[in-house]
Amino acid sequence: MCGIVGYVGFRPVLPVILDGLKKLEYRGYDSAGIVLFGQDLSIVKKQGKIARLEQELAGMQLEGQMGIGHTRWATHGVPSDENAHPHLDCSGRLALVHNGIIENYLELKTDLLESGHHFRSETDTEVIVHLVEEKLKTRPSLLEAVLAAAADLHGSFALAIASQQYPGRIVAVRRESPLVLGLGQGENFLASDIPALLPYTKDIVILSNNQVAELTREAVRVFSMDGQELQPEPVRIDWDARLAEKGGFEHFMLKEIHEQPQVIKDTLVGHIDLVNQQILLPELPDEILSKIRQISITACGTAFHAGICGKTWIEEWAGVPVEVEIASEFRYRQRPFLPDSLAVVISQSGETADTLAALRRFKEMGMPVFAITNTFGSSVTRESDWVLTTKAGPEIAVASTKAYSTQILSLLLLALRLAQIKGSQPPERLQEITRELQRLPLLCDQVLQLESRVQEYAYRLRTLDDYFILGRGLDYATSLEGALKLKEISYVHCEAYAAGELKHGPLALITAGKQVCLLATQNELLAKVASNLKEVKARGAEVLVLAGTNGSVGLEGDEIWQLPATFDLFSPLLAIIPLQLFAYYMAKEKGCDIDQPRNLAKSVTVE
Ligand code: AGP
User: In ligand 1, which atom is closest to the CA atom of 301?
Assistant: First the structure.
């Protein structure tokens, strides 16, 4: 996610802005820029790290009492100097930075071009600064022009904007993307997150959705979108800087587990036709989707498990055969493909060596490649024919959580879009599913309420050294990912197994006291799962049942975690959350290095 820092006050502005941006580096970025307001407006922006920006700034005689800085996480327009923020209006006197996604930027850009505005970048952001410029022609103040512009914007945005025409004044807007205000004496601050403000003030106002702030040296004023002045209560932050980077969570992994409702909501943006209750997939042309006869998915680790989940959805809902193969296996195999096959590569980082090699094998075989990735501008995005960039935002913890959720959500969108185009499901059934899909963020929030139950369970099992997770159908995919989480951060050996396969061998490992998790979210498989429960209980196992809509009907688990009622097909998006939390709290009990587990790297760029 992008980082924003703004300052108006008596200090030398440059160090305040640069130090603030460095405190936000953990959010991930690919470019950085800054605008200072003094006698003149000075703007410097560069692709790459903040150090490159500092090199560019070295030796410049820049002064000013006000400034705005930005670190960009690219979503529209490749990482480049030109696409970096801040962006200027036509007059060159108005500067703006943005964090979020403007869904209707193309139609706004068309209107602005017709009104004579000229654009310098490929970004959605630049539309906003020209829109404010346009509104300023008929509004008496910067604040009112920004309010008018915000009313025309669809999507998520945190904005900071200032103009030479209105010296000593920064206007900021929050809709979905976070913004916090720092209150000082004769100075005031704004930022995307608290760490950037803590060196100067602990008195914070956290802007709520659809609020606008106007900052001067003397005052911070907050308004609703219709211009009503509000009196938000400041809070005093007692976090230290490290804790603040994690939003108050002890580890990035826990923060990212809790971000899942929001990133699912963000990833759904632009993928649901709210009028016709249909799925949209603008990233992949319909003429491609309508011709597909087979899909071949390849990835590594968690992303591979996402592919396993996607296979079940695509085959059962769209009737298209899907193969899923580990990238490090696929890249060395000779194998035939049917004509009209689509290759799908999944990668959070977009830089995993084996996945990239597999992508290049697909290209050598002349197959079109659709990428699902979290990192815009990565090698995978550059080398694929079509790209769906999930909105998980930078994932700092090595253990993938929110990236996984948005990967499987993207595969579910692909399955449902294919079903719509191929007519493989009754339209009214798809509309019903699409309506329920919009409740997903709320359902994920409900699942997170299990956290204290999970923590207690982890405490009871803290001396555990091996564990089984069993599932059938969609639950099997979830069991694979749940097992990987437990292995990679708590170092507990965990076997994920297709529940029906147990009696073909692994049942020999089930003895008295063995700890087993049995996923039971698929109603049509419940009777079979009940028999699996009996077979492990008969050997003395202690069983946690992760129950779906029908609850634990007939399932006498020793511990039962109930998921909220919804369609069975959504269970992978819900059932993974308690398993992520279980892995986290087991690792905590064992004193493991949760965000940086031994031997592992966040992006495996070597074979
Ligand atoms: C999962 O928790 C791990 N971080 C790892 O398995 C990861 O999913 C795998 O290395 C693939 O990475 P990618 O998604 O960046 O390609």
Answer: 6
